[in-house]
Amino acid sequence: MAPPVNRRTGYSRRAQYSTFAAYVVGVLGVLGGGALLASSVLGHVSFGWLHDAAADVQAPAARVGAQARAGAGNVVDVASGFFVSGAQNAKLRREVELARARAVEMQAVQDENRRLKAALQLAGSEPTPVASAWLIGSSASSTRRYATISAGSAQGVAPGMPVRTPQGLVGRVLEVGHGAARILLVTDTESTVPVRRASDGTPAFINGRGDGTLQVRLLSLGLNPLKVGDVFVTSGAGGLYWPGTPMAMVQALTHDGAIARPLSDPAASEIVTVQPSWEPTADPTLPPPAPDVPPPPPRKPKPAKGSKAKAGNKAPSAASDKPAHP
Amino acid sequence: MNAQRLILEAAKPVARRFSAPSPFVAYLTPWLAIVLASFVPLWPLIASAPLMPPFGYLMLLAWRQLHPGLLPVWAGAVLGLFDDMVSGQPMGSAIFLWSVTMLALDVIEARFPWRNFLTEWVVAAGMIALYILADAGLANAAGGHTPVIVTVPQMVLSALVYPLVGRMVATLDRWRLKRFRNVA
Question: Could you tell me the CATH number of the domain that includes residue B50?
Fold first, then answer.
């Protein structure tokens, strides 16, 4: 073990001053860091350009790593697949038989759907993807769930665009650099996605829980109609996420909702697709939005104090009206 | 014969110079190692839960404990800036917490000057647990709602991984002071 550092600087003025200066700078680091922290936590000052610069620098190397990951596959899966291959084979055979029959039915339904849509003159709801990108990194040691993708403003990616894989929704774009972008994963606690149950359209919100699972919160209160295995798709309410993107499967029930698992595990996907943001009003078959109505006056928080506040409010408004008259 | 000896005599200072550790490598290695460890989130590992130990912080602790005085007290602020760029934490959290760590380790060292593997591990584990808790608290203050219980596995894993990081730092330390023998 190394001896502890000798703090006695002796008679050398230079050594004394440099030690002292180091401590001064150290304390300044604490104060400066604290100020920066306060401004980013309280003032919501965006330091996105710093994140983007770091991601841009790292993107080329990280992309190589992501491709290597895709090529190598999951070693554990390969090894475990060795032992269960027989039973799995039989099971998959049965499933394929069923799936074939279902596929024929599905084809018929799709045809009918297309005919009906054509009759109603509905536009196809499948967007053209903006870009496809490698998922090249994630904030693995933080409680926040961010990831970096290898496409940025050069590929046409803009903040707010939803990001998905063929299996389901992954997240949305948060900050965009030149050749890389940061995305907020659906498992982050700040992510809220409006969804509906695929089977009957029960509306709900899905929040991340920060540990890889999702919290389903039902919009309607009352008896919890959810069952384990229910699949939720995005509803498109409020814009941003395209309706019908598969999102989560219920894993366990809670008293007012459920815990769900994301269908597209970010840890298992290498390539993601960036979609343009969904704008519900862009649908030509919808009526035009209502004309702008001035917002209603702010509501008083408490009726008891409301009468007082009203009286107080009236006086200044009358006063402000007066100078306008002459 | 005489000329050969003369040449050897003349080459001696050069040989001495080249057989010394490079000051560039010796002083830059800890800084580079910590920055690279901070950039682990940019490695191709997509995590759906916060399980990965904060390697940058572990590396800082390990260098500080192996070689007190090698990194100046203000190193935490500079290295924390790099960590903040990629960690996903609110900007300034690593600058602040790493600076506090450097000062706190100074105080702890002055208070408990004796050192062995166990005390260092206990001190480091305590610092790591506090750091992860503070990180979760700051991330929640900046908009998240992660329950603290989610970070417990990460704390345990980080404390267990710390001696391995210490080993890695020791290997890097030997490499850092390697003599570059170019002239026989």
Answer: 1.10.1760
Q: Which domain holds residue B114?
A: 2-176
* CA distance, residue A210 to nearest chain B CA (Å): 6
Provide the residue type at A136 as one letter: I
Residue A320 is predicted with a pLDDT of 42
Average pLDDT, 10 consecutive residues per value, chain A (326 residues): 59 85 91 88 70 72 63 56 78 87 83 75 68 82 84 89 88 88 88 88 87 86 83 85 87 88 78 85 63 68 49 42 42
Whole-angstrom CA distances from B123 to A217, A246, B97, B112, B127 are 42, 47, 16, 10, 6
Helix/strand/coil (H/E/C) assignment for every residue in A71-129: HHCCHHHHHHHHHHHHHHHHHHHHHHHHHHHHHHHHHHHHHHHHHHHHHHCCCCCCCCC
DSSP A45-67: ---HHHHHHHHHHHHHHHHHHHH
The full set of domain ranges for chain A reads: 131-280
pLDDT of residue A163: 92
B74 within some domain: yes
What is residue A185's three-state secondary structure? strand
Per-residue pLDDT at A226 = 87
Residue B18 contacts by C-beta under 8 Å, 6 or more apart in sequence? B180, B181, B182, B183
Q: What does the alpha-carbon distance between residue A268 and residue A247 come to, in Å, rounded to a whole number?
A: 15
Examine residue B39 and state whether it is found in any structural domain, yes or no.
yes
A18 vs B: CB within 8 A: no
Question: Is the CB of B48 less than 8 angstroms away from the CB of A53?
Answer: no
Q: Is residue B184 part of a domain?
A: no
Q: What backbone torsions phi and psi does residue B118 show, to the nearest 5 degrees? A: -65, -45
Give the domain A131-280 fold: Thrombin, subunit H (2.40.10)
The answer, yes or no, to whether residue B93 has pLDDT greater than 80, is yes
Question: Between A83 and B90, whose confidence is greater?
Answer: B90
Instruction: Note the ipTM here.
Output: 0.76
Candidates A207, A168, A177; CA nearest to A191 is A207
pTM of the model: 0.70
Interface test with B, best of A42, A143, A174, A206 (most B CBs within 10 A): A143
Q: Is residue B183 part of a domain?
A: no
Residue type, B113: P
**For residues B34 and A221, which has the higher predicted lDDT (pLDDT)?**
B34
Count of structural domains within chain B? 1
